[in-house]
Predict the 3D structure of the following.
Amino acid sequence: MIDTDATAPDFIAPAVAPEADGDGTATRAATELALFRLVEAHDAVVCCTAPATFVPTCTAEFVAVRDAGWHASDDLAVVALTGDSLYAGFAYADRFDLPFPIVADFHGGVADSYDLLADSWEGHSDIPHRATLVIDGDWTVRFAAAADDPLDRADPAPVQRATETLREIGVDAERPRVEYDGAW
């Protein structure tokens, strides 16, 4: 896993992202997500990674971040990254009403650049580990935590531990409440 205080690698990858229609309703669209745009526009970027969509523990964390309202902060960007395709990302975002981009790291290139590539998990290879990263506006990784087992019910969860780092950066972020026993 990438070390804290390291420079975060930039990436451009396909993603499912929220998009506002002209009538004010939100839809989702396929896009290319460029990390540098988020880093330039925010004080911090949180990247939550998962080996695949619909992994219950990862979903619990993504939903907790959604419910904490991190996506609505002007000084914070949230990105989820999974080892699945855009099509799975669309279904996942719709099922759990996720209001932040979901990057499709189908071949593991982004995960590899962050040293978060799992050799294999449940018969899949070259997929991301479950992790949470906080990147500040200077491209410094300020927080990095990964789980050896994506199904581990970490207490506190990495997204909860990341809250303190966000506050140190100056981002007023509510601490997410991760409920692993939800309807995932």
